[in-house]
Amino acid sequence: MSTIAAVIGRILIASIFIAMGAGIISDPARFEQTITSVGMPAGLALPVGAFEVIAGLCIALGLMTRLMAILLFVFVGLVALMFHFRPGSPEALTMLLFDLAIMGGLLMIFAHSQMWWSVDAMRRDRRGERLAREAEERAHAAELRAAHAEGAAEALHPPRDAPRPRRRWW
User: Fold this and answer.
1) N or C end of the chain: smaller count of CB under 10 Å?
2) pLDDT tens digit string along 32-82?
3) In a 3-state reduction of DSSP, which class is residue 92?
């Protein structure tokens, strides 16, 4: 049951980034105005929107989960410092707390990203199965080489208690 809750939580946090990124991509002019108001260069709307959508999809699917969780953690931290850290403003405080909650969720995703129902977990399991199969094949090949070596050694030096072939005098 906890695995299902973790997967649902991962998808819900990812949906925030997918929706925000899609909103930025659909109206980049509004976001450009917000960015330039804090002294950042213009032209970052589409890259930021694309990053949020791609990172959100990766987290939702469980693909490169740990990397995307850390990248989004840093991104949200920067957004919180640049846009939402204004003491005395109740709206900014609400947004800052929202950012801190998302950062906490991203850390949980980072810590528990190797769970079931993710592409990362499937890749890990397949790699483990492949390594086990390769180890079995190497062990089988080693057994065959050992048996072949035993047979060759017996042919050269038969055991002393082995019956010798009869020699005929004619």
Assistant:
1) C
2) 988 888 888 888 999 999 999 999 999 998 888 889 999 999 999 999 998
3) helix
Alpha helix segments (H runs only) across 27-83: 28-37, 45-61, 65-79
Q: Which residues have a Cβ under 8 Å from the Cβ of 11 and sit 6 or more positions away?
A: 60
Contact 131, 123 (CB under 8 A): no
Unique residue bearing structure tokens 């005098």: 169
Determine the Cα–Cα distance for residues 85 and 81; give it in Å rounded to an integer.
5
AA letter at 1:
M
pLDDT in tens, 11-24: 999 999 999 999 99
